[in-house]
Amino acid sequence: MMPIEMLSQIKVMESYVFVAPVLFIMVHILRPLFFIPVLLLCVTGGVVFGLLAGTVYSIIGLMISSILFYLIIHLLPALEKRCKRLEEKLLGNELSLNTIQIMLLRMLPFIHFHLLSFCIYKKSVSFTSYLRTTFLTVIPVACFYTTLGKTIQEISISYALPLVVMILILAYFVRRKQVIIKWQTFFQQNAA
What are the C-alpha distances in Å from 1 to residues 4, 5, 7, 14, 15? Predict the structure, then answer.
């Protein structure tokens, strides 16, 4: 009787092995509706599933979420206009982010994930281009925060704060350098 009970317990545990990742990915997909930060989910993935599985599940969830964002923004032009206004308000209308900048900004917990998805959407020429850029910008986020979740007991604020500062400095140095000359200034200099 004992081996049969053990087998039934093993089968129950095996069923949770498949259910937990699916639920985790579903939470990633529903994350924007509940305003759950990406950081929180990726850290949770590291704590619950470990480094490798947590990273893979987070990448899958973030990619599906980004694909849904792309499809929804195509179906709802009002959402595209709203995202454009938000982008202009937060990033300015003269700013155009490159892939490395988006990658670094996604690492910061206070930057809206789908605002950066909108930046990728705007600069992408096709759905494949959008997927490729999204995938490249999602990998570091998932790896970093899942690793953070795996080692959360050992990290202190004295390590976390310099890391955030370093990411901000990197974002500054890889920015696209542009010179903006106002119309009046341009003609005043030429007239003199």
Answer: 5, 7, 10, 20, 22
Taking the CA of residue 84 as centre, how many other CA atoms within 13 Å lie in the half-sphere pointing to its CB? 9
- pLDDT above 70 covers what percent of the chain? 79
Tokens at 6, concatenated: 């053990």
The amino acid at residue 99 is T
Residue-wise pLDDT tens digits, 57-80: 999 999 999 999 999 998 999 988
Phi-psi region of 50 (alpha: psi -120 to 50; beta: other; left: phi over 0): left
CB-based burial, 112-144: b 16+ in 10 Å, e otherwise: bbbbbbbbbbeebeeeeebbebbeebbbebbbb
CA distance 45 to 26: 13
* 136 vs 166, higher pLDDT: 136
> SS3 for 48?
helix
Token pair for 128: 């494949």
Q: For residue 126, give Cα distances in angstroms to 100, 123, 132.
A: 19, 9, 10
The pTM assigned to this predicted structure is 0.72
